[in-house]
What we know:
The chain is of the alpha/beta class.
Amino acid sequence: MEKQMVGELNPTPRILMGPGPSNVHYRVLRAMSTPLVGHLDPEFLSFMDETCNMLRDLFQTKNRLTIPVSGTGSAGMETAFVNFIEPGDTVIIGVNGLFGERMSDVADRCGAKVIRVEEEWGRIIEPERMTQAIKRNPEAKICAIVHAETSTGAQQPLEEIGSFCKPREILFLVDTVTSLAGCEVKVDDWGIDICYSGTQKCLSVPPGLSPITISQKGMDVSHLRKKKVQSWYLDLTMIERYWNEERFYHHTAPISMLYGLREGLRIVFEEGLGARFQRHQALGDQLKMELEKLGYRLFAQEGYRLPMLNSVYLPKGVEDLSVRKRLLNEYNIEVGGGLGQVKGKIWRVGLMGETCRIQNIECLIGALKEILA
Length: 373
Ligand SMILES: *Cc1c(COP(=O)(O)O)cnc(C)c1O
């Protein structure tokens, strides 16, 4: 019996206004479809160096160890914890949304004693609450927090916590998966020791890589480990040797993903960081205003609202699933629903990277006007 062939892949072009992935520039897709070279080919090695240099500029750091980890943002999160925690270590984690919760789970699985500093979803964690937790637990090895809580739309202030950690032994660990390339992330100025991100949000590159940067203080702490890192794949002491001059084989680099990241970074720097952050801020403000006019109320704490992830309560009478389904099926627009405790109550409207364009806002607002009429 002959088997029926599946059809050629032909996805519908969508406007990706959810919490990620975001729309990808055709230049990134084109770069990803160019011929493979070997992962130890001298040509590829220079692509790697160029990519790391651009990542340093993006993270605003001089950290030598600044590389893309193979895997999505969550692989970056895992890398950030497994390399530094040994069983019994104390870790202080800010938890005000799903990703703080995930950090806490990851640290717990590493055998850490986790001290949670909790706050209501949608609100930031007052920096003094983090610094007080450090004072009460002077043995803590890491203080971890999410910069842009994608589950709630809140933007966490970092500077005060960073300058508190800087003269102390504690390492400051920050998740910038959603913020990097959409608003300021100043790793060196803010005293961040361990910082990871993802390619699929404001970088507008498909999901699959997780840029990470580690300070010298962080490296020194990791070198004092008594035992090997429990994850073979994410062990930075080995991965580092591939990315530095040694070019030691650890795992095969995802070549095409790295092509995509390199092109995505080129696009970021052609626009310029300042202009890019300004675009996200201005269009984020505009989208919030337009949604409020339609009866949506803003969910995240005033004064701390992310530009690239706009969280809103649904107006009365607007049904979550059916309206999002119509947006997708009739208008090809994806918006995100609420997660966890705010499921069914809020939407998360992303304006990340390439998606952050006035015409996308106009499409969404026009579509909502038709649906809600
Ligand atoms: C999306 C996201 C992650 C996880 O990234 P994946 O690419 O889905 O693995 C982690 N932290 C935050 C804040 C995120 O928004």
